[in-house]
Automatic annotation (TrEMBL):
Belongs to the 5-formyltetrahydrofolate cyclo-ligase family. SUPFAM superfamilies: NagB/RpiA/CoA transferase-like (SSF100950). The lineage of its organism: Bacteria, Pseudomonadati, Bacteroidota, Flavobacteriia, Flavobacteriales. It comes from the Bacteria. Keywords: ATP-binding, Magnesium, Metal-binding, Nucleotide-binding. One of its GO terms (biological process) is tetrahydrofolate interconversion. This is 5-formyltetrahydrofolate cyclo-ligase. Its EC number is 6.3.3.2. Substrate binds at I50, E55. The keyword Metal-binding applies.
């Protein structure tokens, strides 16, 4: 299947997920993350879930990061430049949904991409080679291309890996790991 067909497939699969299943799977994903040796960094980029898209609920991961006293960085979509701007999450950070219902910081302390050690990456699907399919706008690929070369990229998925994607582009940046409710994939 090509990326367009896979996007449709996984969006349709998500539609059937109940809030209870999303919570259960999201908690299992957070617990499976604890198996990884990725907790030595200082700055962790975490997307805030789009409830309307039935994404992995990252609230459990946020609690892990806060419990480990990590600096949590959250993105805001820069539509004009097709990029992400990253802000430190603090007690005073105001969150507002944008036009795509993405919860984002209104403003705050901007963190350069080069400071980030680990990125939790949203996705619709991924393959056994570590390639991911997002919503198709390329925000994360562009953001990751501006990060330091040794940044750790961790995908979060309710579903297991596809065999291999047909249409991988040179600008597609592969993951280092992908975590599902059942398994941790290492690439």
């Amino acid at each position: 299947m090509n990326k367009t067909d896979l996007r449709k497939k996984y969006k349709a699969l998500r539609i059937d997920l109940s809030p209870e299943v999303i919570e259960e799977y999201s908690l299992k994903i957070a617990n499976n993350l604890l198996q990884l040796d990725v907790w030595e960094g200082d700055f962790y980029h975490l997307f805030l879930s789009i409830a309307e898209q039935k994404e992995v609920d990252t609230e459990f991961i946020l609690h892990i990061l806060q419990g480990k006293d990590k600096n949590v960085v959250i993105p805001r979509t820069d539509i004009e430049h097709n990029n992400l701007i990253n802000y430190l999450l603090t007690e005073t950070t105001k969150i507002k949904k944008n036009r795509w219902n993405i919860p984002e910081p209104v403003d705050g302390i901007e963190i350069p991409s080069a400071k980030i050690d680990v990125v939790f990456v949203p996705l619709l699907a991924f393959d056994k080679n570590g390639h991911r399919i997002g919503y198709g706008k390329g925000y994360y690929d562009k953001f990751l291309s501006n990060c330091k070369p040794n940044i750790i990229k961790i995908g979060l998925s309710f579903y297991e890996a596809e065999e291999a994607f047909q249409d991988v582009y040179p600008s597609d940046i592969p993951l280092d790991y992908c975590v599902t409710p059942k398994k941790v994939y290492r690439f």
